[in-house]
Structure formats: C-alpha cells, structure tokens
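Q: Here's a chain of 188 amino acids. Please give me its 3D structure as tokens.
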Amino acid sequence: MSDGPHKSLPMPPAWKRVAERADNGAFESDEISKALIPALEHDCRAEMSPELMEGVRSLIGEQDASLFKSDVRPQLEALRPDAGCGIGNRLLNNLIQLSPQGAADFNLLARAMADALEDHAERRSRQVEEHYQRKSTATRAHNTRARMAQSISGSPIEALARQIFKIEAPSKARSTLRQQGLDDGVKL
C-alpha cells in the first residue's frame, strides 16, 4: 500500500505537505493555506539573495522619502544580476511593470512581491499536477490542482510579502501546522 504520490514528489518537504493536504479531501482550503504560506516563505528565502532584497528595499525607501520622484526602473534593472531566475526575477519584472512613470512605493513593492509569490505558487501547483498525472490518476491530479488553486486565491500572500520586506511586523501568534488537541480536529 502506498502513502500517496506526494511522498515521491521531487519538491521540498514543505511543498509535499501542501500537496498531501490538497490531495486529501478532509483538509479545507484554509488548512491548505496554512501549509502553503511556510512553503512560499521557504522558497523565497532559498531563491532570493539578501543583496537583492536589501537593494530593492533601500531603493524604494529612498524613493518614498524623496520629495521629487525619479524613475526607478533603470536602478531596478541594475539589480537584475542579483535577482537570479526565480522569484527575484519575477519581483523585478512586476515592479518595473507596475511602476507608473517609474515611481514606486512600499505598497507597490508589496503588491509586486505578492504577485511574484502567487505566480510561484501556481507554478508549483502545476508541478504537483504533472507529478500526480504520472504517479496517479488524471482525476486525482486535476482535483489536487484545483484545491491548491482555491487555497492560493484565499491565502494571505500579500501579508507574507509585507513580512518578507519588513513593511509591517510579523504576527506574533504564528499558527502551527499540527493539530494540538481534540478541539483542533475536523470542523463540523
């Protein structure tokens, strides 16, 4: 007997937990989201260099404090070598695209980061679906991806984006993925 296709998924353990929850109908969308946010945070830390994060944050901070706004798009392009090919690159693309007349602020940074994280989560969900197509049935694969897409749309991704760039303080009460007692069981 097999534990499921998520066990052989070639992804980090955090994404295996997301796939396992999305595959299991006993987990609701918000419970999948609770596993999704740490997985996105892990990928963000792994893919984005501290130089890129500090460069973008200081550039936006200077722009926000300045009375006369200048075009930040060339300076953002200069950060491209630090961006890599994953989330950092998508962040720069989003910032450049969303910056009206080249001006940017912290709200725009949070929105660009949230869009990059959402895009990354959707890419991971497609990767999970492809793996499930090979290791299981097509119906199960489509169902898992649909549940992941539903949890992505309902997740507090923008709050995570603000936390990553320290735009607002992280919440003190961090929820755990494991259920602690009888009251934490299946919702009725």
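Q: Can you summarize the key feature?
A: Residues 106-135 form the longest helix (30 residues).
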